[in-house]
Amino acid sequence: MIAAVTNGRPGTAMQSFANTLDSREIAAVVDFVRQEFMLAQKPNTRYHTIENGWPDHQRYQVAYPFALGEIHLDTPAETLTPEQQLGLQLFLNSCISCHDRANVKDEGEFWEPRAVSYPRNQYQHTAPQQADFTTGATPYAKHDLAPQLTGLSAAEKEGEQLFQKNCAFCHAADGTGKNWIGSFLQPHPRNLTDPKIMVTMTRERLKQTIRDGLPGTTMSAWKDVLSDQQIDNIIAYINRAFHPIKE
To answer: What confidence score (pLDDT) does residue 109 get?
Structure first.
């Protein structure tokens, strides 16, 4: 179990937590799962409970038929009742991230060979808590809190706005890449706060990475979206907020 949590399980949605938890935390998680889920089978281990961050789960009742596969997700909206249309919208806004596509009539083209989970539709990593992309049970919410900095220069302020609007979606607001999206991406986005990674980073290398992207990863090229000055300002913010960048 420790190996599975540490390294993940290829071909499944079980991702590696080696970059999220240290060895002591992984051992604690495994001990908890073995005791609470496997041995004691306690009520608090059941899904969609208050203890697991799901207060008043009945508010999703109209979405149950879609989550359970009783109504196909691709059923034409005009054939659904008003209540079913509301349930479909609620499912797409809140449930689909975990329940994925549920049940469909048309399988469509198979294009993704591995399991992966992303928030869909109305998800915004900077939005106030809604049902239910973050709750008290999630380990990811704390990483979507940007550092509170004072005395920023004009360039650093603009860099902060640009980073939090664009880069934080994958790298997290705190620069760790340990938010929801970043934790599921393979390879994981660079942890901009990790000295082991950032100690050799230079401004020129980071600028080239932002401009041209990194082949074989989800780090896209931003040269057609951001100007050179905007990229420089983002680097100035990273230098101030997360880790010093060498000249």
So the answer is: 59
